[in-house]
Design brief:
The chain is α/β, with parallel strands linked by helices. The chain has three domains: 220 residues, HUPs (Rossmann fold, 3-Layer(aba) Sandwich); 75 residues, Tyrosyl-Transfer RNA Synthetase; 78 residues, Structural Genomics Hypothetical 15.5 Kd Protein In mrcA-pckA Intergenic Region, Chain A (Roll), CATH 3.10.290. Helix content is 45%, strand content 15%. Strands 1-6-5-2-3-4 form a six-stranded mixed β-sheet, with helices on both faces. A five-stranded mixed β-sheet has the order 9-15-14-11-12. A hairpin with a 3-residue loop joins strand 14 and strand 15. The N and C termini lie far apart (58 Å). The model has no long low-confidence stretch (mean pLDDT 88).
């Protein structure tokens, strides 16, 4: 690659497929462009599964290009069938609007807003999809697509082969996404769509639509879907998704998520999820043993999302707990009303109420297997009642296993 953006994409392992790599490389040598990635707004936060795409947007800015963040207020009403075995739950417009507002705030920390030339642009595709005239849309846009081709795309083909339901609503999704690229090409001079490899068919449709109607070149570029050495799905833990919103997943838990990376994935993740240069990663690999590399990964990944101070606090908290056995004020904190403790509260109920366990039966199993401690003392009684007298200086530490610790404070 001759252009700095594509060269670093390739070095970091971000580059999977491109509609015309040589032509795009030549274009990027000549000028700065605008490129977009679309995000579904099915929840009030993105999770770590979207992080690779966000890292690519940061890379775009680093090399002088402008990112466009499309928040799918329109397409989320339909639901992308790519990679899904069943129809998604259909959300109400007011819920999607709230999700968009919350997700947009995430990007305030993740992208650079200082340089005018590369300042990110936010768009909601409902602004054009919500105004479509169905007849006109079928005549002007729908006529550009053939069923023969649409049936060959994985998002459709796999569902039909497995005899899983695919609604006509979902079937239309690929046309709407292609139309998004067409509109951004018109409105924002957006020449490139980025996405995961599962979006390849949708992206190619957009490139073809622009070529047919506007008679100009546009480009599509995909990154690989992340596969873990363990075979597990990226971003899933026993507690569920690793959210990027700190209200849903604390900075400390986020740091721990990266610290617990499988040994076999550490170097790959240093390239994917940090901004350390290639030669720096190679030097670190030579000098450091695997556990130190995991700490470097956790510090750098957490710094990008939560900032340098929060990353340092998370590391200190972990070191205090695992090396010194201390209670650290930076641990995830839960507030428990004093009135709830007047007659005591069952430990099982406490564990479930504050999402440390999914159910009482899971909590019972953890106690039976010596997995629960209060202030580092093993709990053996599943009927344990937590009273005000258990709190020292207004707080207690409840631990689940060796790596999950929570401070409970009386409020």
């Amino acid at each position: 690659m001759k252009s700095t953006f594509l060269r670093e994409m390739q070095e970091r392992g971000y580059l999977n497929q491109c509609t015309d790599l040589e032509k795009l490389d030549t274009l990027l040598l000549k000028k700065s462009i605008s490129a977009y990635i679309g995000f579904d707004c099915t929840a009030n936060s993105l999770h770590v599964g979207s992080l690779l795409q966000i890292m690519i947007l940061r890379l775009l800015q680093k090399h002088g290009h402008r990112p466009i963040v499309l928040l799918g207020g329109g397409t989320t009403l339909i639901g992308d069938p790519s990679g899904k075995e069943s129809t998604r739950k259909v959300l109400k417009p007011k819920n999607i609007k709230k999700n968009i507002s919350s997700i947009k705030k995430l990007f305030e920390n993740l992208l650079d807003f200082k340089i005018k030339k590369t300042k990110p642009v936010f768009v909601d595709n409902y602004s054009w999809l919500g105004k479509l005239n169905y007849i006109n849309f079928l005549r002007e846009i729908g006529s550009q697509f053939t069923l023969n081709k649409m049936l060959t795309f994985d998002s459709v083909k796999l569902r039909l082969e497995r005899e899983q339901s695919l609604s006509y609503m979902e079937f239309n999704y690929m046309i709407l996404q292609a139309f998004d690229f067409y509109k951004l090409f018109e409105k924002e001079n957006c020449l490139l769509q980025l996405g995961g490899s599962d979006q390849w068919g949708n992206i190619v449709n957009g490139v073809d639509l622009i070529r047919r109607i506007i008679k100009k070149d546009a480009f599509g570029l995909t990154s690989p879907l992340i596969t873990l050495a363990s075979g597990a799905k990226m971003g899933k833990t026993e507690k569920g998704a690793v959210w990027l919103n700190e209200k849903l997943f604390s900075a400390y838990d986020y740091w721990q998520f990266w610290r617990n990376t499988d040994d076999r994935d550490v170097i790959k993740f240093l390239k994917f999820f940090t901004e350390l240069e290639k030669n720096e990663i190679e030097k670190l690999q030579e000098k450091n043993e695997i556990n130190e590399l995991k700490i470097i990964l956790a510090n750098n990944a957490t710094k990008i999302l939560h900032g340098k101070v929060r990353a340092a606090k998370a590391e200190k908290t972990a070191r205090d707990i695992f090396k010194l056995g201390k209670i650290n004020e930076n641990l995830p904190t839960k507030g428990i009303p004093r009135k709830d403790l007047k007659e005591g509260t069952k430990l099982l109920e406490l564990l479930v109420k504050f999402n440390i366990m999914d159910s009482k039966s899971e909590a019972r199993r953890a106690i039976k297997n010596n997995g629960i401690k209060i202030d580092d003392i093993l709990v053996s009684d599943e009927n344990k009642i937590v009273n005000i007298s258990d709190f020292k200086n207004g707080n207690i530490k409840i631990s689940f296993g060796k790596k999950k610790h929570y401070i409970f404070k009386i409020i």
